[in-house]
Amino acid sequence: MRDVSFGQYYPADSFAHRCDPRTKILFLIVFIVAIFLAHNFYALGVCALAFVVVACLSKVPFKSLIKSVKAVLFLLAFTAILNLFFRRDGEVIWRWSFITITKEGVYSTLFLAVRLFLLVLASSLLTLTTSPVALTDGIESLLTPLKWIRFPVHELALVMSIALRFIPILTDETARIMNAQKARGADFENGSLMQRVKAIVPVLIPLLVSSFRRADELGDAMDARCYSGSKTRTKYKKLTFAWRDILSFVFLAVLVTAIVLLKIYTTSIL
User: pLDDT class for 197, splitting at 50, 70, 90?
Assistant: First the structure.
């Protein structure tokens, strides 16, 4: 579990790290839209190439990006397998009892797996190149128009920032509790599925207690520092767009244009 890097910040001096957090959030949103607009492997290849360029500019080790997929690897595999077994149209490759695998089902499964893989990698790259504080400021700035309808924008951004910050903390806490249980003879790797589920219960209870304790300590710390939300709060660093952000938007516009053109002039494989 310590190998999971989703939600962690990787400090570096790179083009991506220096970009405005609002630019990176908008870039991720539009990139996800471009991934879902892609209807064949040519378009997905363009998205993958764009991600490789951004990853190189971020100076984040490729190993750290791959680690972020471990947290959702089971979900990715489960979704792909379901798509493989339940798509029955097209040329039949293999059939046994109620299970039918078709050529189009295999293509669709590979396409879905690559699409979800890129989506997870892009999302993790945002957290790896943006600190929780900067991410909070970016989300709050983008959602500023909602303040006109008295929506708690600052509080929402703060909750998201705390949630991201606590992911690695809870991961380390889970690993510590599991190691303590193993030292007492607990077995999390052998036995049937039900036995392994029962072995996890002694881990979940102390983890839940620890989470509430940390939340209570955080609340006391915020009260001790007279935290009052966004009413009278000022910012030491104000967000400003620079030439890096303009180049990022131009790159994003080229990517979306390429995806749209491929969608128009190429045929879908699905």
Answer: confident
pTM given for the model: 0.75
100: left (phi over 0), alpha (psi -120 to 50) or beta: beta
Residue 1, both tokens: 């579990």
Work out the percent of the chain whose per-residue pLDDT is above 70: 84
Per-residue pLDDT for 259 more than 70? yes
Whether 268 contacts 262, CB under 8 Å: no
pLDDT band at 50; cut points 50, 70, 90? very high
84 close to 14: Cβ distance less than 8 angstroms: no
Tell me how far apart the alpha carbons of residues 16 and 130 are, in angstroms, rounded to a whole number: 9
Could you tell me the residue ranges of all domains in the chain?
1-130+240-270, 133-237
Output the CA–CA distances (angstroms, integers) from residue 165 to 53, 60, 106, 148, 170, in the order listed. Answer: 27, 19, 38, 29, 9
d(CA 64, CA 155): 30
Q: Do the Cβ atoms of 130 and 26 come closer than 8 Å?
A: no
